[in-house]
Write a structure and sequence with these properties.
Elements lengths: L1 H28 L4 E7 L4 E9 L18 E12 H13 L1 H17 L7 E9 L5 H4 L11 E2 L2 E2 L1 E12 L6 E11 L1 H8 L6
Antiparallel strand pairs: 1-2, 1-8, 2-3, 4-7, 5-6, 7-8
Helix pairs in contact: 2-3
Length: 201
């Protein structure tokens, strides 16, 4: 009898420990973020964005359900990456000639520290709305065609959007605001490929 009670207590402690770990995991999941990108085909600009959970599109019980995720589509932090063509060239140089890439990187850092880079520090903010005005295939540049079939959780990783882009800097008074039509939101596996420089040759 004593052995049975001891086993029951042990089982209760194990169950309580697992439940506590799961509760912590669920709590931390509310603060998860994903890397995403906004691409403007008209200007070839690429923005890296921090994607957070779209709570308004997520069932209240979804975060409590194992192996089920909310849609990561709300934009947090935004960083302007530059022209996509220039980014692809840098990745290509890094893979083909790492020494030359490092030298160029050091020159950029030195110019930035010396204040001669010509780069102005700015804060960016982006709001987007889905659009049906253009198919995704028409918005993808040639070097990103390998992303066209990417999906995550049965949700397309490439979404046609209209975006409102705000730029705030020392010289921007008032804040510069522009409306960008027919852009792309890139998320999930497609965004992961861009992050590691997987471009079409």
């Amino acid at each position: 009898m004593a052995l049975s009670i001891r086993n029951l207590r042990g089982a209760i402690w194990i169950a309580a420990f697992i439940a506590a770990l799961y509760a912590v995991s669920v709590y931390n999941s509310f603060f998860d973020t994903r890397v995403g990108y906004i691409y403007d085909p008209a200007t070839d600009r690429l923005f890296q964005v921090e994607l957070t959970r779209s709570i308004n599109r997520c069932d209240k019980w979804t975060p409590l359900t194992p192996f089920k995720n909310c849609f990561f589509g709300d934009i947090g932090r935004v960083e302007y990456q530059g022209k996509l063509k220039a980014i692809e060239e840098r990745y290509s140089l890094m893979k083909q000639n790492p020494k030359a890439w490092l030298e160029n990187k050091q020159k950029e850092i030195d110019a930035l520290l010396a204040g001669t880079s010509g780069t102005e520090f700015a804060f960016w903010n982006i709001t987007y709305y889905r659009t049906m005005q253009a198919p995704v295939s028409e918005l993808l540049p040639k070097i990103l065609h390998s992303l066209k079939d990417s999906t995550t959780d049965q949700t397309p990783d490439l979404v046609a959007i209209d975006a409102v882009i705000a730029r705030d800097s020392v010289k921007a008074d008032p804040v510069e605001i522009e409306v960008v039509r027919k852009a792309l939101l890139i998320r999930g596996r497609a965004a992961s490929k861009i992050a590691v420089g997987e471009f079409e040759p």
